[in-house]
Amino acid sequence: MEGKKTTEMSQWSGGGGNMVRDAVDYRGCPADRSKTGGWVAAALVLGIELCERLSTMGIAVNLVTYLTGTMHLPSAAAANVVTDFMGTSFLLCLLGGFLADSFLGRYLTIAVFALVQAIGTGFLAVSTLLRQLRPPPCGGGAPCEQATPVQMGVLYACLYLIALGTGGLKSSVSGFGTDQFDERDERERTAMSLFFNRFFFFISLGTLIAVTVLVYIQDHVGRSWAYGICAGAMLIAISVFLSGTRKYRNKRSSGSPIVHILQVLVAAARKRGLKQPLTAAALYEDRPDHARIPHTVQFPCLDRAAVMAGEDDNEVGPDGQAAPNPWKLCSVSRVEEVKMLARLMPVWATTILFWTIYAQMITFSVEQANTMDRRMGSFEIPAASLTAFFVGAVMITLAVYDRVIIPLCQTLTGRQGFTNLEKIGLGLALSIVGMAAAALCEKKRLAVAAATTGGASAAAALPISVFLLTPQFLLVGAGEAFIYTGQLDFFITRSPKGMKTMSTGLFLTTLSLGFFLSSALVSLVKGATPWLGDTINRSRLDYFYWLLAVLSVVNLAAYLVCAKWATTKPAEQPQPVDADDKC
Question: I want to staple 19 with a disulfide (CB 3.0 to 4.6 A). Which of 11, 276, 476, 492 is the partner?
Fold first, then answer.
């Protein structure tokens, strides 16, 4: 019996045995390395991500033309509907991550919310098919009738059901994919690094299909057909995903990082009245030496959460034994995890504006393209398909970075390319140039519109090529390649080990807040200036683009200060901590 127990422990340890540590199969038993995980299981997860991108981007990039052309919304209002939809999708990633960590687990979270997204997309297909859910078309010289509150309410219900599904599953897909590989095994660790590359490739592939094939179907066959294809593709992806249930490895959850953060904040707030000076040695710690995070002197007000106050910190458990209440007393390592997240926040805040600029590329830039000459011979390019330049710019930038910039940096400096903070800074700089290019292009387009139509909107395309928009798409797209990879690397590598899902959600909230900030800026500018009129030809969108460029210059300066602060390593020596210090 003793020998059998030793063998089982050896297998569970992952040190060349059959079992993967900290992973279980669909029955809750220790996961067998030979029967679970690996590329087969990871590939099934990638199908969900491909269809999610196909559906979400296929709706978002061409939604503004539906809102202005079919629902007859003003230009600025249509742009805000799109940005609010995208912002909500990314914001709900926090909800999905919380549910996955606390209750459902990543597998069930993906399955449930993928089904929610499929249902929402199916409802959207039906709503665009029924004539009762859209206003009558313009004609006969009468003014266009704007969609009624009921019609818009149905559209909003469909969009936000899709946003719920997208946000719920998106925070878990990449994490569940990496769960299929064991970091302790060298061969599987190498495969995990390849998974990230293929994961990003599937994101790009889904977006490319959405902005080309799916947009073409929307414009030339029908939106209900395109949205129905999205719903069907998601249902197929769910079926494929569920077929791999026996192959998946599921990681045991250590609880929600959000709850852990709140516990530290609540415990620190409860002990805010402490006056006596403290030392690191006097603080509470319950982790073994190898798992501890060294105490730092930064943000000393949070250290109050680890101050021991005797019996007041304890609670009686179900077994009748007294144990520390985590809402009153937290370990030094738990406090340090919150400090690590706090150090990320300045960089987090200064990356939000980039995604505000990104939002213009799928809203106002699509409206610009819709007024311009989009012919290539006998073929007319759908306006929303111009966003394919985004995907192209991302792919080209990443290829040039891997094949040219990294070898060049190795030769000249011995470094493996740019650091994550340098990538973010480069992305912010490219977005400034992109906005300047967009402003110059719009000035030229407005001049042509004034000479052709006297500034009024017209159904006929303006005699100016849509490819004049190419520089702004390429510049902002290249910026996205740098800032997306830089942000993801920064948040994952600088966050605590037990909060990787939380850090991914934190990264995605920059996208969310960037879209919401776009809506706020559009509303503010529309109310304070005449720059954003009911139609794009009666607006001064170039002034709005210049405003974004100026704000981005200020933001870049703030980012450089924050990046310099982020590279300064906080002191780890045990030093006196004054409870009266401020954060």
Answer: 11
